[in-house]
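Entry: Deoxyribose-phosphate aldolase
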Amino acid sequence: MTPIASSTASSTSDSGVFDDVVRSDSSLRRFLHGLPGVDQVGCEARAAGLGTRSIKTTAKAYAIDLAIRMVDLTTLEGQDTHGKVRALASKAMRPDPADPSCPATAAVCVYPDMVATAKQTLGDSGVHVAAVATAFPSGRAAMDIKLADTRDAVEAGADEIDMVIDRGAFLSGRYLDVYEEIVQVRHACGDAHLKVIFETGELQTYDNVRRASWLAMMAGAHFIKTSTGKVQPAATLPVTLIMLEAVRDFREQTGQMVGVKPAGGIKTSKDAIKYLVMVNETCGPDWLDPDWFRFGASTLLNDLLMQRTKMTTGRYSGPDYFTLD
């Protein structure tokens, strides 16, 4: 496992890059609404075209292993138990116990109260612990509660925090409120990395996805993430394309790289490979790394393992061959 890359990103206002932009709600609104509008037809056509690329043989085998390394193996259910989290963490370290050449996943993603259990099981394996916070998935809580939620997860050992933005504030045009909330949560994270979840299924327009992407990056997000997985539609290729274009353009303007994490609804190896093609074609090979691209998934891993077994042994193992998560 590659360790999380160190990032120079903090709130970009701290480095002076966007000082004038974040001075007031009105200046931030002018900037975000001044971003180029998204061509919906062109975006969807581009995403569909990239989804038709054929990846075979050694390239496909490489893509499957890379996708496994990019998975945030996730359980976010009210019925989660410590035993389930320990089993999930064990699977993250050794996805296919019968094949030691199979790579580990990037992280295990759990609720904050399960962080200590995941951390204890994972030990020094290199698999990270991600915790959802800030009143996930609704984001409806007072700021002090959101910050306490974040600090509790970090103190329990979380390497990464997945926060949700206040969609009500964003859709009401209270952009500075959203920006300041992200900055405060980023500060509460300490050394942990921050992923900012937009819940794109509630943002209504592609233009809003682009605006949310820039807003989160300006506030210091290490990753921007599509969805909680609790709202449909969740991750889609066109939405992810917009976010990938945003991180590409943000690096061109600031020199800072920001990661992207589509989450929810990505279930098959074929789907995952479509996303990897899009990453390569939009941002380039720098983002083809678990430090900069992740899949938030609970069922994707088993399909990747089935396809991997088929390619290495010539035999297709059914879904019962691997543990159910």
